[in-house]
């Protein structure tokens, strides 16, 4: 079980701690589990929080198992009403145990909070010595075995291991994909389990039986090739009502997410996924029959040279050979592989190897998840989707404008990077084993951001027509108007139907439509720009971590929760400019300032409706012009937008500006 975290500011350690606790407590024999936490932030605070959490886990895990608690992330469990929920034990003994646990969790929470305020531990001694003289992007590897299941007993706790891989400014670290590869190698040395679950630090296990569910799918297929990985689709907790930021993905999961299962299987989504270790090591479906014979004869490795791509660690290559032929060779204790673990976490280990190219999580895209999943499907593997009730994992969807835009921009960038790379799905279908329809499903995803450019121009069109008093739609009285009008109505009704059919509201539909247009104008266009800059060799793309908030119930009920927020980021400029252009158009028209035209060539109701429609889509920006604080578009952004809008109007309006 892998958990990745990268920044204690954007990803508060208490969130990571809850995810770790929920994983430690899943219903599965504990001696067969190990939880590895990768900290790309190299933060003593995260380490301290995990140390405290490990102590708390010794109380929490037995408590959850004894009373069969369903929600095993303490912050969620204790946030619910303190009255017992249905099906829970009502005995005095349980009540007392729960109260004690609540106090203990409160203590843990306070300790972590104090530590984050006071930058505790202030003196980096004892366990913390390793963190002295470290910088986030320049430090040696730190590996700490925090809990060890020494007795190999199912009733104890799983292993818990903290890893902060080595970083040096001049060595690329490949963001999350790099972190996952280090986790893969270290876990290969220490425990070498045939299956690997990975979650983002905010995705706690919401269904304690999830490992069993996933195993049913992984072990239940007739041929291994039918299930390379099991993906639990992403769902989120405490989402704002009616999905104001359009990122709760419910409709996407329902239709695309489950529809694609009928082809080659779901995309790998980066979190909530169970991988087979050997698939991550680059196995092909056909290898499944031959591997056993070719690698090992009389228990000795014969073809070690074929494993050169895995790097120079002998011990690690040995573990790979075992993994590939499906043997478990758990070392007796974790400590014996510690030295090798340091070796495989160094920032030079991957030089001249196939890591990120043929093996492990793939490099070259900020959406390493889609790229890695695509590489697996391209080899002809299938994947499966696991949707238990209650949902397997829940995370937090970004809230507010800036966080949503950061995430969308990263996705747009990463997906386009895949499209323009040689690993794109078209190549995979023509020359390898990607199914045609699966290829189309990937293309739908990968080309989305490209739409931003025609869409932006199209959104300018009605304003342009009004300013120049021309038209792009047939007039109201012409029969041809039926065509665009029908397309418009059918498209919107159909989308609305999709939302209503899964039990969402009209408001949720509208919010999603609106957010898609705003995202397209702002985040996606910047995504396209950053890929163009990368292709021209002018800049590299970066993985910007999205901010996670631990929402409390008071937040989610306040009126402002779900309001769109802004910051100084340039992503908001195109949206602001687009809105202002439309406002100028409406303004000039209502004052009669637009040029005269004959009855037949001037703009008519169609163009006005389109303009009003665009303004409605960008309503949060309109409000942002007048509101205060973080709900206001910063003046500099308004200025930049206004300059662009005026320039546009100046170009196209023949009236004397
Ligand atoms: O250098 C880095 C950057 C990020 N992360 C971790 O990667 C995860 C995902 O980052 P996040 O900012 O939460 O991204 P999201 O947009 O929420 O994530 C979705 O999209 C990403 C790809 O864009 C996938 O990697 C994620 O798994 C998927 O949940 C987090 O646990 C981070 O801690 C690292 O470990 N190292
Ligand atoms: Mn996330």
What does this structure look like?
Its main location: membrane. The active site is at 40, 369. It holds the Pfam family Cellulose_synt. It is a multi-pass membrane protein. The chain crosses the membrane at residues 480-500, 521-539, 571-593, 605-626, 638-656. The longest helix has 30 residues, at 506-535. It contains 23 helices and 13 strands. Helix 16 crosses helix 18 (506-535). It has helices at 13-24, 44-66, 74-79, 92-118, 175-190, 210-220, 250-259, 277-280, 287-295, 314-324, 338-344, 368-378, 401-419, 425-431, 436-446, 452-468, 482-501, 506-535, 553-557, 572-590, 605-617, 619-626, 635-652; strands at 2-5, 34-39, 142-147, 159-164, 195-200, 204-205, 229-231, 235-236, 273-276, 296-297, 300-301, 383-385, 393-395. Strand 1, helix 1 (13-24) and strand 2 (34-39) form a beta-alpha-beta unit. The strands form three sheets. It has an eight-stranded mixed beta sheet, sandwiched between helices. The protein has a three-stranded mixed beta sheet with strand order 6-13-8. Strands 10-11 form a two-stranded antiparallel sheet. The radius of gyration is 27 Å and the shape is globular. With 657 residues, the protein is of the alpha/beta class. It binds uridine-5'-diphosphate-glucose and manganese (II) ion (MN). Uridine-5'-diphosphate-glucose binds at residues 4-6, 11, 38, 40, 175-176, 179, 200-201, 270-271, 366-369, 407, 410-411, 414, 543, 545-546.
